[in-house]
Amino acid sequence: MEISNKTLQDKKVEIVLGNLLRTGVLISTVIVLAGAIIFLTKHGYEVPHYITFHKGTFYLPGIKDFWNELTSFHGLAIIELGIICLVATPVLRVVFSIFAFLIAKDYLYVAFTIIVLMILMYSIFA
User: Measured between alpha carbons, how far is 60 from 125 in angstroms, rounded to an integer?
Assistant: First the structure.
């Protein structure tokens, strides 16, 4: 039984995609755990007051505010960075797949993968 060059290329792409997903999940896990440790060391001793309800404020900080919180080692900002990495992992997988299909000259799959990437981007940013 002879293994074709295309089969070997497909296997290499599968290995790279699997490693990309594993690495992304591992990195995001480490970042979230580091943020959780920092958050708990700073705020773990606080006792919540359940007697009265205080309506919290919700705001989305800009990139500059987010960066300032990251560089100040705020635990919640580091946890958010880990979640961003976790969300970025499948997006990077789709981008890598586009290039893999381009190299393989599988233009139909390139088109489908670009559509998937556009749907992902829309669902993230819209």
Answer: 13
Range of the domain at 22: 9-41+61-125
Number of domains observed in the structure of the chain: 1
Domain contains 46 = no
**pTM of the entire structure?**
0.79
Query: Element (H or E) spanning 22, and its range?
Result: helix 5-43
Task: Give the E-state strand segments of 1-126 in sequence order.
Answer: none
SS3 8: helix
Residue 4 falls within a domain, yes or no?
no
Give the pLDDT score at 52. 80
- Specify the higher pLDDT residue, 40 or 126: 40
The 10 Å CB-count burial string (b at 16+, else e) for 86-109 is beebeeebbbebbebbeeeeeeee
Give yes or no for residue 93 having a pLDDT over 60.
Answer: yes
